[in-house]
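2024-03-11 09:14:02 INFO receiving multi-entity request
2024-03-11 09:14:02 INFO entity count = two
2024-03-11 09:14:03 INFO echoing inputs for audit
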Amino acid sequence: MIKEVHGGVTAPKGFRASGIHCGVKKEKKDLSLIVSDVPASGAAVLTTNKVQAAPVLVAKEQLRRSTTFRGIVVNSGNANACTGERGMNDAWAMAKAAAAALGADPHEVFVSSTGVIGQYLPIGKIIAGIPVAAGALSVDGGAAAAEAMMTTDTFRKECAVRFDCNGVPATIGGMAKGSGMIAPNMATMLAFVTTDAAVAPHLLQRALLRATERSFNRISVDGDTSTNDMVVVLANGMSGAPPVTDDAGVSYQTFEAALEYVLVALSKMIVTDGEGATKFVEINVTGAATEEVAVRAARAIANSNLVKTAIHGEDANWGRILAAVGYSGIDFDPSLVEIGFGNVPILRKNYTIEFSEEEAKRVLAQKEICITVDLHQGESQASFWTCDLSKAYVDINANYRT
Amino acid sequence: MIKEVHGGVTAPKGFRASGIHCGVKKEKKDLSLIVSDVPASGAAVLTTNKVQAAPVLVAKEQLRRSTTFRGIVVNSGNANACTGERGMNDAWAMAKAAAAALGADPHEVFVSSTGVIGQYLPIGKIIAGIPVAAGALSVDGGAAAAEAMMTTDTFRKECAVRFDCNGVPATIGGMAKGSGMIAPNMATMLAFVTTDAAVAPHLLQRALLRATERSFNRISVDGDTSTNDMVVVLANGMSGAPPVTDDAGVSYQTFEAALEYVLVALSKMIVTDGEGATKFVEINVTGAATEEVAVRAARAIANSNLVKTAIHGEDANWGRILAAVGYSGIDFDPSLVEIGFGNVPILRKNYTIEFSEEEAKRVLAQKEICITVDLHQGESQASFWTCDLSKAYVDINANYRT
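2024-03-11 09:21:47 INFO inference complete, emitting structure
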């Protein structure tokens, strides 16, 4: 039983958080701190972009050096990416300042940054802000922390679930940011997840990889993969539930399902809040030979500017969907494909088109649209989430730096 | 010596063309015919999309069956794609009607369609229009033919060159259409090229493949690969120049260079006329280990919505360029990369950033922008052409069918 509960990263026991304004941005909150009261096991998934921001490189080093973790410090307003040696020094300075405030080792505090690329951090302001953020830590601070890492986001993204862990209730809570530079295949953006379950590091990493593959790696806003993508999960065992130690056991399966639930919920929020998005789009590819084939086809559809603009215009342009599957690289027989919008069949086998434009229009006029594509070649399926492409996306991104 | 001359497909000797209105579109011209007075050798490059429009499938069959060709019939306003068996019958009906009007075999007349996907051709109107188009054929008809295959294009695209072919002047002329569904790696769209040089079919095919690789395959408007992409070249030998028979000879080299010249010119016109485009962007990646690496990096930049919107906003957001190279899949050292806009260096090695925003702004305010990216890893380079992403692109594509 996985049950959604109120809150985010401070919903699990033994986690506190805060979000404050330290001066990277003009007025809005820009510094988040998440802390586990006791050393926690940690796992992370990092961007696959060859250009990796300083915090990503620091996290790699920390994961090599440390087996326990105490917290995460995040600034918004500046991504500390493409900033060379000075950027690395700044990222470590953030880790050290947060560690000092928490009485931890610098290798135990993850650092994360999001915002404009290619400018140096105003590191003095951040270092001065960290003790203030530490002073503001609270068991109700999850929402403030989620808010302080927003950039072009229009709402904060939190989710928490309760589940049965070896007979004891445990909780997973998460927060995410992101609405642009969201790309297929490694679209992680920033997401931080806490749990009071006790999970061994290698199992935590395994569960995180699998859940990320089925959540953040299945969303797309603009097809651009960020240099800063980072998902971190901390597990501190404070629920008192017996440790999850065996990946064949029920508790691991439940933990993994609960984690996937939280990450999928956060992923959908990211897409809903996609830059300039007016519609949330779920793409379900069914009847595929393998899950990989289904994902590949779905990703091509989700990434097509032509499909996304047609959805924006509420135009039942199914030909663009079929064309996108056609260039996705999968092997299939186009004459077998069936396409539907919501519960309205649009294209049937052998290119048979029998639908009322009015009915299709009614589905496409909704805020949440489900596109189904049946390849009729096998039993596998996958879901993928994206948003429409609007003129507001162009507005937001034409002058992002200014 | 390759010299640009006036005109398009009727610039070479022995070719006539016409463009008329037959009723697929409401008012504009929608039917083009190009004819060689004598049987010509032919070659074609067709879309790699798995979903192939009927005319593409017909062309494949024609290339298998016939060694000589007489002409090309093209309609705009409807792509005859995803139309199943009826679409195939319609495409063959077009070939037969054109062949009858020209006294040729149906296998000798290529068919091409462009416009909306997934609707049946108004084949009666086209069949009725073909004799009219045949009656209008003229040695000055290239411009009308180029005009009649336009869809969202805002200007017709023609280019012709004269070159020395074994001591005798010969001519290559071409026309193209396209401004949306222009995608990397197989972005051909429709382009029809004629020459009065005599070129053996296998050499014609080889030259066309290479020239396409360096022209139409190096442009991108929106990253969507069409179901109808088609480039055809006809060589009728009417210049009287001795045949090009040896691919090691000077005449083949010159022919190939002249063909590449025409295709590159047409490619640049397509990008300049990209849907909603306000700027033409040339991306030069240099210092690459191989040409393939350079193309791959350039394509990722050209395809990035974030780069394209930044250019639209005249924002010197070099970080997005570097991030795109980072996810392009190539192997490189980000700290060695140098980026420039026009002649203004923006990023130097080791992430050194020393540029005046005003100077960058001045370059970006121009209509034609050149972005240079030096990977500092080798001696290879490649050019790629694209346009910016504007709100007008969204407008054009949100309601394309209506």
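2024-03-11 09:21:48 INFO post-check: Chain B touches chain A through 67 residues (CB under 8 Å).
2024-03-11 09:21:48 INFO post-check: Residues 2-271 of chain B form a domain with the L-amino peptidase D-ALA esterase/amidase fold (CATH 3.60.70.12).
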